[in-house]
C-alpha cells in the first residue's frame, strides 16, 4: 500500500471514529423523558405525518416507513397520497435551526387543524419550537453553525445523523413493546419495489 493510500485509510478510520464519538456524546446528553412523551403521542394519535427538508426529511421518511411496518398510519407531507391532517393526528417535524420556512408553515397549518405537533430541533427558542406541543432538543449544530463548538462535522450533519439514529431507537422500543413478530411486520413492507 502506498503512502497516500495508507494516509487516506487512516483518515477514513479516524473520521468514522469521530462521527461515532460525537453521536455517542449527543446520546448521553438527550432528555429521554421528552423522547418517551413522543412515544405516547405516536401511540395515541389517529394518524402520523412527518415533515422535514433535505437529510432531515429523509430521516423522517425512513421513520414513517418503520411506523407503517408496526401498523401505524403514517404519511409523508408533500406526497400526493398524503391525506388531510385533522384533530387527533400528529405532525412530527424536524429542523435543526428551527427556522425552515416550509416546516414552520406545515406546523402552523397542523395546529390550525387541531393536530398535535412535535419537533426535533437544536434551538429550543426557535419559532418552530414555540409552535410545537413538544420539542425534542438534539444538542447538535444546525446548518448555520460553521464552527467546531459542537461538532467537527459539516454544518447540520450531526443533527441529521442523530435524528436518524434516534428514530431507529424509538422504532426499536415501540417494536419491543408491541411484541410483534418480524414476519408479521414484514407483510406490511412494500411489495411493489
From TrEMBL:
PROSITE patterns: SIS
Database matches in Pfam families: SIS
Keywords associated with the record: Isomerase
Glycosyltransferase keyword on record: no
Gene3D superfamilies with a match to the protein in the record: Glucose-6-phosphate isomerase like protein, domain 1
Record-level GO BP terms: carbohydrate derivative metabolic process
Xref: InterPro entries: PHI/rmpB (IPR017552), SIS_dom (IPR001347), SIS_dom_sf (IPR046348)
Residue ranges occupied by any SIS domain in the UniProt entry: 38-180
Listed GO MF terms: 6-phospho-3-hexuloisomerase activity; carbohydrate derivative binding
Domain of life: Bacteria
E.C. code: 5.3.1.27
Family listed: Belongs to the SIS family. PHI subfamily.
Protein name in the entry: 6-phospho 3-hexuloisomerase
